[in-house]
Design a protein that fits this description.
Elements lengths: L1 H9 L6 H10 L3 H37 L3 H22 L4 H23 L1
Helix pairs in contact: 1-4, 2-3, 2-5, 3-4, 3-5, 4-5
Length: 119
């Protein structure tokens, strides 16, 4: 877990690059970029919420099937680690747009991680 946090902290300047680059290509003015980043953050948060519920259901089924609670502990640790890492990583961003883009990218990375955890 600490290794993941360290890795995220080292990549802080690049963390929000995908969302911000995508929005910068779509929109030309600052207002449009701001709205685009805000929409992407909302979309990523909703996707994370949906994936989180599906993963939790899969993990609960796995726990019921094999009787071990290891998967459930791993899932909870992953959730807590994501919240901490996202806070540390995105808090370092000075601008509101950069922070929102960072949050969107961190949430999308967590979605990918949860998809792997569910399988």
């Amino acid at each position: 877990m600490r290794a993941l946090l360290l890795l995220l902290c080292l990549t802080a300047p690049l963390a929000h690059a995908a969302t911000l680059d995508s929005c910068s290509q779509k929109e030309k003015d600052i207002g449009g970029i701001r709205l685009c980043v805000e929409a992407e953050r909302t979309r990523a948060a909703n996707l994370l919420r949906e994936t989180n519920l599906a993963t939790q259901e899969a993990v609960n089924q796995k726990t019921k099937t094999d009787g071990r609670r290891t998967a459930l502990r791993d899932f909870r640790a992953t959730q807590a680690g994501h919240v901490r890492a996202r806070a540390v990583l995105c808090r370092a961003q000075a601008d509101g747009v950069d922070r929102q883009a960072c949050e969107a990218d961190a949430d999308l990375k967590q979605v990918e991680h949860l998809k792997h955890l569910a399988n």
